[in-house]
Amino acid sequence: MARVILGVSAGIAAYKSASLLRLLREAGHRVRVIPTADALRFVGEPTWAALSGEPVATDVWTAVDEVAHVRLGQSADLVIVAPATADLLARAAAGMSGDLLTATLLTARCPVVLAPAMHTEMWEHPATTANVALLRKRGAIVIDPASGRLTGADTGPGRLPDPEELFAVVQALLARLIPAGNTVLAGNTVPAGNTVLAAGTVPAAASLAGRRVVISAGGTREELDPVRFLGNWSTGKQGYALARSAALRGAEVTVVAANVELPDPAGARVVRVVSARDMHAAMLAEAGIADAVVMTAAVADFRPVARSDSKIKKDGSQPDPIALTENPDILHDLAGRRAREGQEGQVVVGFAAETDPDPQAAQAKLARKGCDLLVVNPVGNGRGFGSADNEAVVYSREGSQTPIPRGSKEALAEVVWDLVAARLR
Ligand code: CTP
To answer: Is 232 marked active-site?
Structure first.
C-alpha cells in the first residue's frame, strides 16, 4: 500500500487515467487525484472522487486549512501525471505553481513520473524537447509516449501508454522504493540500508541513461500454409518487463516482438515480427547501435521447408506436409556480429527455458552461443510461460552463477539489468 498522487492534465487521454486509477485502487494504494482545471472538461470531478474515494481539488484555495498544496506532495510515495500535456510539461519545467498539481510537483520529494500525451507536432517541438530534457535532468521520469493512433485519424508518437503499462511502471517504481517483504507503509521513512531513491531513479551504478538496448520478446511462428503455423507458448511478458525496466533506468529501448498480445511496454519502441527469419533480420539490424542485446524470445529452431500457398489437405496430396529445415541461431549470430564489427563492449544476453536445468549444460550453451550472460529459467508444471512469476540462475561467461529466487518477472528484469549495467561500466 502506498500513497500515490495521480495528476491529470487536459488531454483527451485523461479517460485512460480512470482505468489507471482503478488498477491502483485495486492494488490497495491510496490515490489522490489532482486534475488541472481544464482536465475536468474531459473527465469530471465526480468520476475522480468516486473512483478514488478521496476529495478532488484543482486549485490551492480549497481546504486551505490543510495546506494541501504543500502537504499532498510532501506525503506522497509517488506522483504520476498521466496524461502530461505540453502545457503541463512547460509549467513543470519552469517551476510554476499556480494550481494544485504544479504546486504538488514542486513539493514532492518522491519519484515523479510524467507520461506525456499530445499530438506528434507538439511532442517533437523543440520547446517540448527542451522541457523534457530539463525535467529528466532534475530527476523526473518522463516516459516516452507510444506511437500509434492519436485523436482523430492521425498517427505518430504522442499516445499515452495503456493504463496496464502505466500501472506496471508505478508498481515497478514502488517495488524499488519499498523492497518486497518490507512493511514500511506509505509516507513513512524507509529504514537505513534501503536505497531511498529521491529522484525515483536507480542508483547511478545501475543506470542505463544514454544506453541503447534491444530486446527480443514473444514466440516466433512458422507458417505451414495460409491457416496454420508452428509456434510456442511464449507470451512476451518477461521481455516486456525487461523493456519497461530498462526504459525506467533511462535507456532508449527497442523491442523486437514476435506475436505478443500485450500492450506496448511504456517508453519502448516496438518492431513487430512473425517468424524466426524476420526476427533474425530485425535483431541484426537493430543490434548495430546497441549497448546491450537481450534475447528473451522463444525462437523456433525449425521451420517448414516450404509454406504451402493453399491449405494442406489430409488426403495425402502433400506426402510430407511438415518437413522441416533449421532456422538461423539469432543469439549466436548476434554474438558473432559483435566480434566481427569490433563492438566488443556490447553486452549480449540469452535466455534459456529448460524443463531440467543443469549447470554444466547451461555453461556449455552459453559458450556455444557466445553470449556474456545466460539466464536459465525452469519451465513446465506452471512455471515460466505466461505466468506472472519467474525464477532463474544467471550464468556468466566468466563462470559465475547468480541465482534469482522466484519472484515477479519485473524483479528478475531488475537483476538482469544490474548485471548488464555492471558489465557496461
Ligand atoms: N535462440 C536464438 N535463435 C534460435 C534459437 C534460440 O536466438 N534459433 C536464442 C533464444 O532466444 C535464447 C537462447 O537462444 O535466448 C537459448 O534458446 P534455446 O532454445 O534454449 O537454445 P537452443 O540453441 O535452441 O538449444 P536447445 O537445443 O536446448 O533447444
So the answer is: yes
pLDDT at 199: 37
Catalogue all structural domains in the chain, each as residue range(s) with its CATH number.
Answer: 3-174 (3.40.50.1950), 212-303+326-424 (3.40.50.10300)
The span from the CA of 35 to the CA of 62, in Å, is: 13
- Taking CA atoms only, the protein residue closest to ligand 1 atom 6 is 299
pLDDT confidence tier of residue 205, bands split at 50, 70 and 90: confident
Q: Are strands 252-258 and 268-273 parallel, antiparallel or unpaired?
A: parallel
Q: Which of 182, 194, 232, 259 is catalytic?
A: 232
Tally the residues of the chain. 425
Residue 107 is inside which H or E element, if any? helix 100-107
> Over the stretch 280-313, which tens digit does the pLDDT of each residue have?
999 999 999 999 999 999 999 999 999 999 999 9
The structure's pTM equals 0.88
Nearest atom, ligand 1, residue 283 CA: 7
Q: Name the nearest CA neighbour of 54 among 21, 77, 85, 87.
A: 21
